[in-house]
Each structure stands twice: as C-alpha cells, then as structure tokens.
Amino acid sequence: MNYKFQEGGPIGLSENGDVITIDIDKRRKDVHLTDEELKERRKKWTPPPYKAERGVLYKYIKTVQAASKGCVTDE
C-alpha cells in the first residue's frame, strides 16, 4: 500500500532504526513493521503541519500523487 507521509502511512509512521526496503524496479517502499506495531503508532500519530498554507506550494501539496505514480498533479 502506498500512502503519503502526510496521511500517516507506513513511511510516515517509521522511526529511527526501522528497516525500510526500497525496490526501484517494483516502485515500492516497504517498512518492516507488523500490523500491530503500525496500529499502535497510528494511535499516537498526529499529522505534521503543511510547509505552506497558501499559494502554489500549498496547491501542489494538496494535489500531488505519490512518487511511485510520477508525482503528477493533473489526474
């Protein structure tokens, strides 16, 4: 499953020391955590603030797709 960091996906829930595998050919980033570990971390997680609250950067943040889909904004 591919989530944005801002949405509290596995990459956003990772911590220092966690093992992450990046597979370029398959366009995947996987965090090696159990479903239970992810569930516990998600309970404590709050989304980080956006780096912009208006303007072009804000529009980009709100519309960009995941890197595995090319970071496009027009679909």
Automatic annotation (TrEMBL):
This is Dihydroxy-acid dehydratase, chloroplastic. It comes from the Eukaryota. Residues 7-71 form the Dihydroxy-acid/6-phosphogluconate dehydratase C-terminal domain. GO terms for biological process: branched-chain amino acid biosynthetic process. GO terms for cellular component: chloroplast stroma. PANTHER family: DIHYDROXY-ACID DEHYDRATASE DAD (PTHR21000), DIHYDROXY-ACID DEHYDRATASE, MITOCHONDRIAL (PTHR21000:SF5). InterPro entries: DHAD_IlvD/Edd, Dihydro-acid_dehy_C, ILV_EDD_C. One of its GO terms (molecular function) is dihydroxy-acid dehydratase activity. Gene3D superfamilies: IlvD/EDD C-terminal domain-like. It comes from Olea europaea subsp. europaea.
